[in-house]
C-alpha cells in the first residue's frame, strides 16, 4: 500500500481534538481506552500531524510484546528418526512422501525429535496431500498404549532431487500444524542428493505476515549459537526468508548409538576369506601383465636415450613424465600380492569344503590340491 494512501485511510479515524502541532505528543485519552497510539502524518511535508488511535484488541493483536523465536533455536534429530526419514524417502522415489515427527519441546531453544512414522499419503513430484487426521489419531493412540509419551512436534516430507524448500501446498500444510502447535517444524529431506556422510535436509517454520507488515523481525538474536545452511537460489525464489525461515539442525547421538552406527560398516576378518570371481581375477591379471609389458618397453627406451643424450638434455627430457622403473616395481609387487592372496583363499576354501576323515589322532583334512581349481 502506498504511504500517502495509507495516510488518507487513517485520516478519518483521527478526531479533531487529537490534532497537534508537535509530532510526538502523548496520547491524550486515558490508558483504559487504548493501549497504544499511532502517529500518522497527513503528508510528508505537512506541518500538522494526528494520532490515529485503534482499539486495544487490535493493538495487542498487531503489536503485542511477545517472546520471539530465537535464532539459536535448534532441532535435534535422533539417528533413528534420520534413518527412517531417509529410508522412507528413498522408497518413494520419484514421488514425494510424508510423515509425522515425534518428540518434545525442551525449551525455547531446543526441539528434540526422537522418532518418526510414515503417513499413507499419495503425492506428486512437487507436493503431497494433507495429513490424514484419522490415521494420525489411531497411530498416536497405539503409541500411548506402548508407553510412548512423545507428542507431534512437526512433520517431514521428501523432495526427491530438487532441494529443500516449501511449496505453496507445503506452506498451507504447515499453517494447519502451526494453528495447533505454534512451534511446529516442517522438515524437508532430499533422498536423491543425500550421499554417505552428507544428508541434504533442512527445517522450516512460517513467518507471521502481520509481523512483516509492521516491520518487525521474525526472530530475535540473543547469542552466537546455531548454524544455518547457506540457502540455495531455488529456495530463495520459493519464498525463503519471506514466507518462512530456516532452523538449524543438529544430530545428537549417545555413545551406544554411535558405536552401533560405526559397526554397520566395520570391516571384519572374514572379509579376507571371501572368494572373488575367477573371470574377473583373470581379466585383472591380464591387464596388469599388459601394463608391465608397456612399462618394460618404456624403461628399455629410456635406457637407450640415456646413452645417446647429453646431461643438459636429460635434465628436461623426462620432466612431467611417468618413471617406468618405479611403476614396474609397484605394479609387479601388487600383481604378486593379489595372486598369493587369491591362491590362499582357494586353498582355504577347498580345505573347508572337503569332508574330514577320522584317523588315529582325530579328524584329518584331505590333501590340499589347488591345481584342480586353477
Automatic annotation (TrEMBL):
MPN domain location: 75-210
Coiled coil: none
Alphabetical keyword list: Hydrolase, Metal-binding, Metalloprotease, Protease, Proteasome, Zinc
GO cellular component, one term: proteasome storage granule
An example Gene Ontology molecular-function term: metal ion binding
Entry's transmembrane regions: none
One biological process term in Gene Ontology: proteolysis
Highest taxon above the source species: Eukaryota
Stated family: Belongs to the peptidase M67A family.
The name this protein goes by in its record: 26S proteasome regulatory subunit rpn11
Lineage start: Eukaryota, Fungi, Dikarya, Ascomycota, Pezizomycotina
Amino acid at each position: 500500500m502506498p504511504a500517502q494512501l495509507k495516510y488518507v485511510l487513517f485520516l478519518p479515524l483521527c478526531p479533531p481534538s487529537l490534532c497537534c502541532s508537535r509530532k510526538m505528543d502523548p496520547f491524550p485519552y486515558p490508558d483504559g481506552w487504548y493501549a497504544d497510539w499511532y502517529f500518522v502524518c497527513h503528508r510528508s511535508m505537512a506541518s500538522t500531524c494526528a494520532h490515529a488511535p485503534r482499539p486495544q484488541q487490535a493493538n495487542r493483536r498487531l503489536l503485542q510484546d511477545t517472546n520471539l523465536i530465537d535464532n539459536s533455536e535448534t532441532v535435534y534429530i535422533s539417528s533413528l528418526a534420520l534413518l527412517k526419514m531417509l529410508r522412507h524417502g528413498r522408497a518413494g522415489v520419484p514421488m514425494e512422501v510424508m510423515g509425522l515427527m515425534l518428540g518434545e519441546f525442551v525449551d525455547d531453544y531446543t526441539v528434540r525429535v526422537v522418532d518418526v512414522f510414515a503417513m499413507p499419503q499419495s503425492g506428486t513430484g512437487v507436493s503431497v496431500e494433507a495429513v490424514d487426521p484419522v490415521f494420525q489419531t489411531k497411530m498416536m493412540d497405539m503409541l500411548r498404549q506402548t508407553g510412548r509419551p512423545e507428542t507431534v512436534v512437526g512433520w517431514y516430507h521428501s523432495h526427491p532431487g530438487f532441494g529443500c524448500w516449501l511449496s505453496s501446498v507445503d506452506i498451507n500444510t504447515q499453517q494447519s500444524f502451526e494453528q495447533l502447535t505454534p512451534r511446529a517444524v516442517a522438515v524437508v529431506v532430499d533422498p536423491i542428493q543425500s550421499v554417505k556422510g552428507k544428508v541434504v535436509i533442512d527445517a522450516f517454520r512460517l513467518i507471521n505476515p502481520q509481523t512483516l507488515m509492521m516491520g518487525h523481525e521474525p526472530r530475535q538474536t540473543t547469542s552466537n549459537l546455531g548454524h544455518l545452511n547457506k540457502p540455495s537460489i531455488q529456495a530463495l525464489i520459493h519464498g525463503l526468508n519471506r514466507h518462512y525461515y530456516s532452523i538449524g539442525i543438529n544430530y545428537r547421538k549417545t555413545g551406544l548409538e554411535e558405536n552401533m552406527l560405526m559397526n554397520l560398516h566395520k570391516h571384519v576378518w572374514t572379509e579376507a576369506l571371501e572368494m572373488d570371481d575367477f573371470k574377473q581375477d583373470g581379466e585383472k591379471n591380464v591387464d596388469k601383465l599388459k601394463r608391465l609389458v608397456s612399462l618394460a618397453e618404456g624403461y628399455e627406451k629410456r635406457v637407450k636415450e640415456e646413452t645417446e643424450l647429453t646431461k643438459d638434455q636429460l635434465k628436461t627430457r623426462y620432466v612431467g613424465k611417468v618413471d617406468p622403473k618405479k611403476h614396474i616395481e609397484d605394479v609387479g609387487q601388487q600383481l604378486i600380492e593379489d595372486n598369493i592372496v587369491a591362491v590362499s583363499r582357494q586353498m582355504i576354501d577347498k580345505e573347508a569344503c572337503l569332508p574330514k576323515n577320522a584317523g588315529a589322532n582325530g579328524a584329518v583334512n584331505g590333501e590340499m590340491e589347488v591345481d584342480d581349481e586353477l
